[in-house]
Amino acid sequence: MPEPAVLVTRALVEEAMTSLSGRCELDLYQGPPDAIPRDELLRRAAGKAGLLTVLTEKVDAELLDAAGPDLTIVANHAVGFDNIDLAECTSRGVLVTNTPDVLTEATADLAWALVLAGTRRVAEGDRLIRTGTPWIWDPRMMLGHDLYGKALGVVGCGRIGRAVARRALGFGMRVIYTDVVRLPADVEREARVEWREWADLLAEADVVSVHTPLTPETRHLFDANAFRHMKPTAVLVNTARGPIVDEQALADALRTGEIFAAGLDVYEREPAVTEALLSLDNVTLLPHLGSATIETRTAMGLLAVENLFAGLAGQRPRCLLNP
Ligand code: DGY
């Protein structure tokens, strides 16, 4: 039997690449720093049995048409799958998988890096030193806000949201959350999280951390109106998907002091960043590093490859998304 033809749209960590080799007819796109151009993606997908994609590749009817009838599985190297038209794949019998769980703790850690950066002005302080700005210890210098005794508001209390909540307890915070579906009472009790309606969470939280998927309902969930409801001392952190936050409205809220600070790992038009944010000291900007640890990216890569080959072998992949 010939080996299945597979397109991998971006090189994975070495261990994951090794686990691919010798098991398929591999077509690897190696053109960073840019994502594979759309026309090249369409051309190279033709005749493939498997696509191993990352979050920048839009998997839609056009790509599925270009791939043709041999396509069995799209294995996404991410927990988020808003880049994939799942309904379209399902209607054509194409399997879709993601890489949940293995990145939960790493992403929660990075959310906390941004919480601390925002509340304690960490990146701003680093910039002050590096730019050689004169300073002397001063009781009024670069004051942030305490976390102890404050409220963390988690928006989307799934795996990552709960891992972020767990860390908050160690900082002496209490946790409130909102989600499309309220958690069962025993889960709330065990996680020590309290349900709030959306507007109440905005008004009460000192730190708001976003962990909801990007859907038509969550696009621009954080808009000018949401910022108006938040405390002037509040910090917003987004490690989920960029378009959940209206970046221009966020820049305005940060500039006018409507909220205190923000930390972003993801962007509305990634990798572009809204110009108005770049000159603000009260926002920390990271290049989508949520899952970027050696351990986690290795686990994600191996899981994506495992899903891919399970699907190609006609088995049910561990992380199947199709209903
Ligand atoms: C994901 O997995 O969805 C992240 O955004 C990338 O690790």
Automatic annotation (TrEMBL):
<dbReference type="InterPro" id="IPR029753">
    <property type="entry name" value="D-isomer_DH_CS"/>
</dbReference>
<dbReference type="GO" id="GO:0030267">
    <property type="term" value="F:glyoxylate reductase (NADPH) activity"/>
</dbReference>
<dbReference type="InterPro" id="IPR050223">
    <property type="entry name" value="D-isomer_2-hydroxyacid_DH"/>
</dbReference>
<dbReference type="GO" id="GO:0016618">
    <property type="term" value="F:hydroxypyruvate reductase [NAD(P)H] activity"/>
</dbReference>
<keyword id="KW-0520">NAD</keyword>
<dbReference type="GO" id="GO:0051287">
    <property type="term" value="F:NAD binding"/>
</dbReference>
<dbReference type="InterPro" id="IPR006140">
    <property type="entry name" value="D-isomer_DH_NAD-bd"/>
</dbReference>
<feature type="domain" description="D-isomer specific 2-hydroxyacid dehydrogenase catalytic">
    <location>
        <begin position="6"/>
        <end position="320"/>
    </location>
</feature>
<keyword id="KW-0560">Oxidoreductase</keyword>
<dbReference type="Pfam" id="PF00389">
    <property type="entry name" value="2-Hacid_dh"/>
</dbReference>
<comment type="similarity">
    <text>Belongs to the D-isomer specific 2-hydroxyacid dehydrogenase family.</text>
</comment>
<dbReference type="InterPro" id="IPR029752">
    <property type="entry name" value="D-isomer_DH_CS1"/>
</dbReference>
<dbReference type="Pfam" id="PF02826">
    <property type="entry name" value="2-Hacid_dh_C"/>
</dbReference>
<dbReference type="InterPro" id="IPR036291">
    <property type="entry name" value="NAD(P)-bd_dom_sf"/>
</dbReference>
<dbReference type="GO" id="GO:0005829">
    <property type="term" value="C:cytosol"/>
</dbReference>
<dbReference type="InterPro" id="IPR006139">
    <property type="entry name" value="D-isomer_2_OHA_DH_cat_dom"/>
</dbReference>
<protein>
    <submittedName>
        <fullName>Glyoxylate reductase</fullName>
    </submittedName>
</protein>
<feature type="domain" description="D-isomer specific 2-hydroxyacid dehydrogenase NAD-binding">
    <location>
        <begin position="113"/>
        <end position="290"/>
    </location>
</feature>
